[in-house]
Amino acid sequence: MAFISDTLSRVKPSPTIAVSNLAAELKAAGKDVIGLGAGEPDFDTPDHIKAAAKAAIDAGKTKYTAVDGIPELKQAICAKLKRDNGLSYEPAQVSVGTGGKQILYNALMATLNPGDEVVIPAPYWVSYPDMVLLAGGTPVSVEATLENDFKLTPEQLEAAITPKTKWFIFNSPSNPTGAGYSHDELKALTDVLMRHPHVWVMTDDMYEHLSYEGFTFCTPAEVEPGLYERTLTCNGVSKAYAMTGWRIGYAAGPKELIAAMRKIQSQSTSNPCSVSQWAAVEALNGPQGFLDDWRKVFQRRRDLVVSMLSKIDGMTCPTPDGAFYVYPSIAGLIGKTTPTGVKIENDEIFAKALLEEKGVAVVFGAAFGLSPCFRVSYATSDEALTEACTRIQDFCASLS
Q1: Where are the domains of the chain?
Q2: What are 117's strand-pairing partners?
Q3: Where are the extended beta strands (E) located within 38-104?
Q4: CATH number of 49-285
Q5: 26-49 pLDDT, tens per residue?
Q6: If 0-12 CB within 10 Å is exposed, 13-18 middle and 19+ buried, where does residue 366 land?
Q7: What confidence tier does 11 reach under pLDDT thresholds 50, 70, 90?
Q8: pTM for the whole structure
Q9: Are 361 and 22 within 8 A, CB to CB?
Q10: Does domain 7-44+290-397 fall into CATH 3.90.1150.10?
């Protein structure tokens, strides 16, 4: 009898974390490496948020809290959803977890039975399919191609839904592509979902506030109120507020689902960090003006990376609507060979050769379910991005 669970054999470690760890190891060994794999802002957490955390420590707010969030944070989340998204929730409809990942995982664990299917547009965040597998469900990946700007069409969604479909996971702006759905594009998808009342919607709105000129964010229950009762609207403070290490994610949805998620959390992690919760209260309720400044920086970096990568023969680099990633296609480079004799047969080999020969760490596209591509995170300095893109240009020019 095997000691390790059969369920665990169905999943794999996070490729994005693996790339970041490898880049860190190479740096520690003295290699000149530029890491473009991490999905976190390089900005520091704003001072007013850090001050709120310090005040919470000084006030002794370091004990256990309610399993899925303090009342003050739930109220702040309700106010945020009303203010930014026009969605009305009460605290009993809100769950706070240790990061957005736990929120999604809790929901899937609370609802999936063997045979249940979850429709996931690809490219997708690497954790979606594996969380579905851990929960006993079956991920159904549907490719949103470069030709469609990495966005799922209504026809594709319709074709993917079966009587076994329980959830549709929706992420906009997207990790890894940065693609965002306009109101009309999202309405076309919600029209499909309205014809299938057995399908629930799980939104990942983590990059909501990282949307750039020409794109306006919207979320499914906002676009189609008829989906309100079967939508779990998920978000967090990690990306927008540069609070990745604070580990606070949240969701709002029907009370029955929230109660089921609370039950799972009560027997796994229990409450999120008390100090982080008070910091999140300030993040959501406090000044928001710095977000405009950050967006301008990210947009400048996006334009820099897209401009430099678009000059490479054999590479196509679309301009994303949001988040802090670009997802170039290397279809025109497949089959070429590096000066050291490595044949670029797929995007994983491309990423490995790029790291070994030029010291640039990126995440290969197969990890996100769509090849041949790779993901670049531009959440780092202009100087590092310029040097990294120059190295990528040199690497690609050396292929024959």
Answers
A1: 7-44+290-397, 49-285
A2: 138, 165
A3: 94-97
A4: 3.40.640.10
A5: 888 888 999 998 889 999 999 999
A6: middle
A7: confident
A8: 0.95
A9: yes
A10: yes
